[in-house]
Amino acid sequence: MRNFFPIAADLKEFLIRAGDAEMEAYFQSIYTEGPPASKQEDPVEWGKLREKIAEEFSVNSKYVFLIGSAKSGYSLSPSEFGRSFSAESDIDLAIVSDWYLNTLAGEFLQWKNDFDAGSVQPRGERERISWLSNKNIVPKNISKGFIDLYKIPALGMYATRQDCISKIIKVERYFKNIGMDNRGVSVRFFLDFDSFRKQHVINLKYVGKKLAK
After folding, report:
1. Which of 66, 86, 156, 162 is most solvent-facing, going by the fewest CB within 10 Å?
2. Per-residue DSSP letters for 60-93?
3. Strand partners, 96
């Protein structure tokens, strides 16, 4: 099977020069379908895994997407662009689900109110700084139609956030069973496919601008 993904040098040139239509086309062709770069020889294996992840989160498998370096085979972060995906890399998933987005947005608001009231406390200065940052960033992300699961503290009173822990442990095991034994799995939930598309294209444009400097 031919290599479906461009090498890092070619993608860098593309991201610097591409216009809106080209960015949209790249997103549609690379990120919405097909196996990750490391599993191109066995796309059925990724299809089966995608079904398992979808079943775990009670969503249609067409709304489960692998993103980041686990998908392309190397990092697209401007500061680490081209760094190969490895066992030290995270596996990043995007799941489109209005139920999860809305439920977790409600739990985030509950946590924010609890934090402001002092009924939940960070476990040190590093966590305090992270919580203060998340208080400001997450509402902006929700308004754009997405939320990062890890930005809600995994405390027992936030039931859906807590329930996701056991789901992610199972998903990590699924990846390990196909030879992707990585640092961990992170999940970003989107309100709908259009929110997923818009945010990913925004991210690609941002990378292109940074790489052009």
Report:
1. 156
2. -GGGEEEETHHHHSB---GGGTTPBP-TTSEEEE
3. 190
- Owner of token pair 């809106």: 20
Spell out the residues 6+ positions from residue 30 whose beta carbon is closer than 8 angstroms to its own: 4, 5, 71, 72
Listed in sequence order, the DSSP H helices in the chain are 8-17, 20-30, 43-57, 69-72, 98-117, 125-143, 159-177, 193-212
CA-angle at 146, arms to 37 and 63, nearest 5°: 50
The pair of three-digit structure tokens given for residue 59, joined into one six-digit string: 């969503």
pTM above 0.90, yes or no: yes
pLDDT along the chain (213 residues), means of 10: 73 93 87 77 85 97 92 91 90 97 98 96 96 97 97 95 95 90 92 96 94 90
